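tool=predict chain=A
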Amino acid sequence: MTSANSCRAAAKHLRRNEFMALPVFVVGRYSADAAQAAGFTDVTSAGGDAKELAKLLKARFSARDRRLLYLAGEDRAADLAGEVAAQGVLMKTVVIYRAIKVTQFPSPARDAIAGREIDGVLHFSRRTAEAYLSCAIAAGILDRALAPFHYCLSPQVARPLMEAGATTVRISARPDKPAMMELVGTR
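tool=predict ok
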């Protein structure tokens, strides 16, 4: 799994008991914590991003007669199944959750951004950074939405913000929640 959302969705799935008995490989510490909280007991973290997870899976499962199940979101930043398929690892991708993109800020958020009351914004995915920008454009407050510090999980997450003109973008040293919290504390 490449996200904590997949872990939470698996925990609510009708066939969850079948999942819980399987070894789980996740992208990083945040996903590992979510998998354990969801009830998975055999959890291995790649300690990084989807590329690190692909390396781990290729090393562990290349030339083995095993099939892997990738419980994923509908929208994915990386093609994990494609990455491992090149090494002969068989993986079936199953969409287990879907995130619906909002089209406008809730009124309190819009008003706080418009009133320049926000000092910083946390961005954990490229998709949410893009949604943030879309909502700011729709509300006519893009200039004010770009003004706070933007704390981003990775360069990929930061890219749309920088392309839109944000100048106070900070990128986490590692793609995990603890590193993001450290980043916020160093401002």
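The chain is about 45% helix and 15% strand. The first strand starts at residue 24 and ends at 26.
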